[in-house]
Amino acid sequence: MTTEEPRQQDQQSRAWVYSRRGPPGAVLALETTRAAPTLPPPNAGAEEWILVRVAFAGLNVGAVWQMLLLPAWLRAPTPGEAGPGSATGGGGHGNATTTTAAAAAAAAAAASVPSRFRKGDKILAMVPASLALSTGTGALATTVALPARCAVAKPAATSLADGAACLLAGMTARLLVAAAGLPLDQHGGRDGGRGQDPPRRVLVNGASGGVGCLVVQMVRRAVGDAGRVVAVCSGRNAELVRSLGADEVIDYTLYKDAPGLAAHLATRFPSSSSSSSSSSSSSSSSSSGPPLSAVIDTLGFQPLYLASASFLAPSGVYASVGIKPPRFALPDFLVAVARMKLNEWWPTARWLGGVGRPWRAVAMLSPSLQDRRDVVDLLAAAADDDDSRPRLRIVRDSVWPFEEAVAAYEKLARGHARGKILVKVDPLVGDDEC
Ligand SMILES: NC(=O)c1ccc[n+]([C@@H]2O[C@H](COP(=O)([O-])OP(=O)(O)OC[C@H]3O[C@@H](n4cnc5c(N)ncnc54)[C@H](OP(=O)(O)O)[C@@H]3O)[C@@H](O)[C@H]2O)c1
């Protein structure tokens, strides 16, 4: 969808906005006659800005939390609005589209910085929470003005939809893999686990979600053929997760709750430093094996962490996206934040009342340009010399029309997306168009 001239309708923008706190279905409104954003005036800042026509937006759970929790006074009003409001997208949606370059070049010249983009370039961008909250910018709008540091060039062979799906989830996945102490094998081939002795055994919880699908693939490469990737997901997603690189799938629906799953893990991967019951209970079972080297929890199940000494090796790390509150509600969120701080600050030593294993949480408030490039490089790079497929496969749960963004958010909030949920902002763009 490269065009050299802005379309007539680019003078106006359509955007999903909200101005009060609440669930997406209650607070989101579609504005159809909004003036399209313009670039900041000269001297507005010493950096390049771009005007972006959005093709797709990828939805993220963090934006649901922003809509539910953040009072209006904590967010900047969207420019041009009478009252406080913010285009949704808050915590970051990947966008893919073309820049209107005349404007981009003008902004760069005014700021005396080199221009990275020209009119018609196709880009992938992620609006970080720091920008969304301070400026009211979000991705669910037909036209968006952004600092160029939020964007990277789209690889030629990557579809606009896959590009929109990859950035926030991919950056989170990379952080998790690094936090778990695994090598980020960006350029290696099938020998990702070379030199690891003994081979690593890594558990990925929530393996079929937007973040989980990417973590499984990154861990597969990090541990190599000798290592073992154990995925926790429901039976309906077992085949998908195996196709992404999991050696073993544990169906969480077979267990009553997270403590039930933890009890199974203690039997399957007994850790010698935990209670004797866990190792003895499976002594005759061919299904028990050495403890896990690391856990990557893409959902943040606190009971799983609290029991981790029973299935995670003493040297192992529990890497997590945070702690999942039981409901989308402010009190539950505050309790989860307090528990996260305790996980971080309380000593891990058992004799001091600790869990016995370190907890490492990741945060994605304001990722760098390099963070974005690292993910996009994985999309662009061939898996191996004899294989032209990208190293990262994007799993799409569904693609929703722009007008149905609320229904898309409601599906996301139910917690059972299989890969990424996308909104097609520009109806003229094909689902697989590059
Ligand atoms: N810290 C950060 O900076 C950061 C950044 C990005 C995301 N996050 C957080 O990371 C979390 C995951 O994000 P996401 O986009 O991957 O979420 P998501 O796509 O909504 O995850 C949904 C997946 O979780 C699976 N699932 C549901 N219950 C499960 C259970 N009990 N055990 C195992 N799997 C289960 C679902 O499978 P079934 O349908 O089979 O149940 C579904 O495939 C969110 O809480 C998000 O807020 C944090």
From TrEMBL:
Transmembrane segments: none annotated. One of its GO terms (cellular component) is mitochondrion. Residues 270-289 are annotated as: Disordered. One of its GO terms (molecular function) is oxidoreductase activity. Residues 28-423 form the Enoyl reductase (ER) domain. It comes from the Eukaryota. InterPro entries: ER, GroES-like_sf, NAD(P)-bd_dom_sf, YIM1/Zinc_Alcohol_DH_Fams. It holds the Pfam family ADH_zinc_N_2. Residues 271-288 have a biased composition (Low complexity). PANTHER family: ALCOHOL DEHYDROGENASE RELATED, RETICULON-4-INTERACTING PROTEIN 1, MITOCHONDRIAL. This is Zinc-binding dehydrogenase domain-containing protein. It comes from Hirsutella rhossiliensis.
